[in-house]
């Protein structure tokens, strides 16, 4: 920190550096005293906006353009990878180059710096501390271990008296030499580790200074060295020799005293720590070129009267299903009916979901309730007032997410429940506009691995994805391809790779997106009216078909 900016001193004017500051020019980003403010405003070669220091806005420290000193760089040339000012752009030297807002570049770089700092502070540096501590412990044990060797040699020497004195001295000398070499090896190892730790401390200090100063130039020129330090220094392994005394024989005193093998010093290659991203990332499962149906379940629902709509996995070979009647069925892959349960009210369930404990949850639109089935007993856990529940899903945190319409079908929202307590309501974007359609059409939802909330909004012909806080991330409105009919998503689910899968019933296919909404591919597999979707723990996809009343199990990863 600049000495004039310390907490114990008065903050001084940036120009004269002698008088306490009172004002701040937001456009030039400098602090001014009364006299310097007058002089500063008299410079008519550029615009100024001088305000009282306490009323200043916190603005980024834009770098000055090296070619046009009177200008600040507010853009970043992606091709040249340098900050540029408006004059640089208008000069034509960067014609055709992609430009980005330097604040966005700063934000991305700052985030990278913060990740590096976090990894250095929480993962890499503690490992170096641990290694240093291990070496210190080993050094502390040297005296005891080598002391035992010396004691053995002394005891043997007392037995052999004068005849063995010369041999004893030679052995002790050899032990002392080994101890010295051992200690030298460990001291050298300690110096290497200490040097690396000093470098790490300096890097962490520099990163904190860069983040605190918010200086675009420093931030832009920073290069990460985290990958270099993930490979830990070599660790010295020294084997302390043993001394094996034998019975005295004057003719073979030297051999009987016991041999002392040479000191063994081995240097192991340092382990390479995985990055924080690699530690937290799940195993990669690539998409199959040709997805295939591995099982077909006949649910017993009528194709015309009580059509199949929803499916939810209980296990790899058992699924719950529901259609347009009041009965929910548990079936295995051989289409055997294992259990059937009727709704408490006699109304049809709109959607079903399986909890982490293996219990079944269903929504009753006409009864305004969300119900839990445990040991075949139905318990109403939530009764809505003024709202009617549509789709439901169980989250990784064991909450319930429910998407619902208002009684007058003019509003829609997603609500998070912990038990029967409402924890979160998601209805509008940052501009106060509704996130979801309000025309009474079907809506399905699912939570992704990154905790995004994904809604298949049939009425809006879109998949709407918000983050855990409810902030809109993106809308997916279908892929540009030769589809016969418009994109109308029915059913949605996510997998271990954070893929988003949604059923396009009108076009008889499943769309697969990545977690950022980028289209990856279709699944066809001869689907007829795909609707409800779910995946099991092995990422097998189960698809409920309205037109056949069948559930198809599909391998696509």
List the helices and strands and how they pair.
Blueprint: E1 23-25, E2 30-32, H1 34-42, E3 50-52, E4 75-77, E5 82-84, H2 86-90, E6 99-101, H3 102-213, H4 216-221, H5 226-230, E7 235-239, H6 253-257, E8 264-268, H7 276-280, E9 292-298, E10 308-313, E11 318-323, E12 327-332, E13 337-342, E14 351-354, E15 360-364, E16 369-374, E17 377-383, E18 387-394, E19 400-406, E20 412-418, E21 421-426, E22 443-447, E23 453-457, E24 462-466, E25 472-476, E26 489-494, E27 500-504, E28 509-513, E29 519-523, E30 530-535, E31 541-545, E32 550-555
- Calculate the terminal CA-CA distance, rounded to whole Å: 54 Å
Based on helices, strands and strand pairing, what is the structural class?
alpha+beta
CATH architecture assignment of the largest domain: 6 Propeller
- The amount of helix comes to 25-40%
Tally the structural domains: 3
Overall outline: flat
CATH class of the largest domain: Mainly Beta
Features:
flat, single chain, disordered N terminus, four-stranded antiparallel β-sheet, alpha+beta, Neuraminidase, 557 residues, 26% helix
Can you walk through the features of this model?
This protein has 557 residues and is of the alpha+beta class. The chain has 3 domains: 3-59, no CATH class; 103-279, Helix Hairpins (Orthogonal Bundle), CATH 1.10.287; 292-555, Neuraminidase (6 Propeller). Helix content is 26%, strand content 30%. The protein has 7 helices and 32 strands. The strands form 9 sheets. Strands 9-32-31-30 form a 4-stranded antiparallel β-sheet, with no helix packed on it. Strands 10-11-12-13 form a 4-stranded antiparallel β-sheet, with no helix packed on it. The chain has a 4-stranded antiparallel β-sheet with strand order 14-15-16-17, with no helix packed on it. Strand 15 and strand 16 form a beta hairpin. The chain is flat.
